[in-house]
Specification:
about 85% helix; elongated; single chain; about 110 residues; mainly alpha
Length: about 110
């Protein structure tokens, strides 16, 4: 009986941890959306976009753990790749618009 109670306690703790993590990620997405809209610079918007993508990937992983299925792995990979390619495309677009300016060496 003590082992059964210990197992239930572990499952309840995991459930609370997953719910707390999902809440934290939801707040992170909201903060990212705020920064994406408000700016003020393009770099701020780029970092906000990366924050949102990372939070969505983590949220999807948590849902996969909660559901107990590995079927969300493809979705995680697709969202990660879209985020990566979106960031690279935005950096390339910024590089093209600033092509007339002289580059500063670090």
């Amino acid at each position: 009986a003590a082992r059964a109670l210990a197992g239930v306690h572990t499952i309840m703790t995991l459930t609370y941890a997953l719910q707390a993590s999902e809440l934290i990620l939801a707040v992170a997405v909201l903060i990212g959306l705020y920064r994406l809209v408000r700016g003020p610079s393009v770099v701020d918007r780029l970092i906000a976009f990366d924050l949102i993508v990372l939070s969505v990937v983590a949220f999807t992983a948590l849902i996969s753990i909660e559901a107990g299925t590995p079927h969300f792995v493809e979705l995680i990979l697709i969202v990660s790749l879209l985020g990566f390619f979106g960031t690279v495309a935005l950096i390339k677009a910024l590089d093209v618009t600033e092509a007339g300016e002289e580059e500063v060496e670090p």
